[in-house]
Amino acid sequence: MKTILLTSSGLSSNPVRKAFIEVMKDRPKGPVALVTTASPRKEKSPWTQMAQQEFLDLGFEQVDFVDIKAEPKFDFSPYQIIFVCGGNTFYLQKYSRLAGFEATVRMHLANGGTYMGESAGSIIATPTTRLANTVAPDPNEVKTVNFTGFKLVPFEIFPHYEKQYEAELQAYEQEHGVKVERLTDDQALFILDDSVIRIG
Questions:
Q1: What pLDDT does residue 71 have?
Q2: Contact 125, 132 (CB under 8 A)
Q3: Most CB atoms within 10 A, among 28, 63, 117, 165?
Q4: Closest residue by Cα to residue 82 from 18, 103, 97, 70
């Protein structure tokens, strides 16, 4: 079964964590790879540290930090879960392309692994990262012009949603003829094969 969890804030929200536990309850707690590339502080970021602790608290005994910029040929095959941490969407996108990370993720899913995204890690799973350049934009210091995402899901995502962004999001949807899934920090989308389940 293809299993994808797209979030704003990982497992820090109780509803999201409970849904994750329910979906994963009959699966082995295999190794977890935390991809820290999007974060300026990598594994030293309090957010990536928190993500690691959340998995450890749930009984996952091996939770490893991975930076695909530093290790573009990293072998993800032993891992049950690839969790892509938040940070700068375009920095993540640049080094994902250089590492061939999309192909790695697709192989991981085909082999029964789970993909989890947090903020930028969720955005990159969608058809395009263009939204991250438009509404509450990330700094595009790497000068990304090709915004094509991994296309793991057929919709776009706006993480950390607040009502102040609604007018801009509606204008974006109208301009591009798309539907944007809004996710607050307490919400997530579980994709189980072709079923999309909203949490929170």
A1: 98
A2: no
A3: 117
A4: 103
Q: Which of 93, 69, 104 is nearest to 146 (CA)?
A: 93
Residues 33-60 have pLDDT tens digits of 999 999 999 999 999 999 999 999 999 9
Cβ proximity of 100 and 65 under 8 Å = no
Half-sphere exposure of 193 (CA within 13 A, CB side): 1
Cβ–Cβ under 8 Å, residues 129 and 97: no
Question: Amino acid identity, residue 125?
Answer: A
| Half-sphere exposure (Cβ direction) of 29: Cα atoms closer than 13 Å | 13
- CA–CA gap between residue 43 and residue 159 (Å, rounded): 21
> Residue 119 and residue 112: Cα distance in Å, rounded?
23
Mean pLDDT of 2-21: 96
CA angle 67, 11, 2 (to 5 degrees): 75
Say which residue, 194 or 147, is predicted with more confidence: 147
Residue 66, both tokens: 């991975």
The pTM score is 0.96
Distance CA 158, CA 126 (A): 10
pLDDT band per the 50, 70, 90 thresholds, residue 1: confident
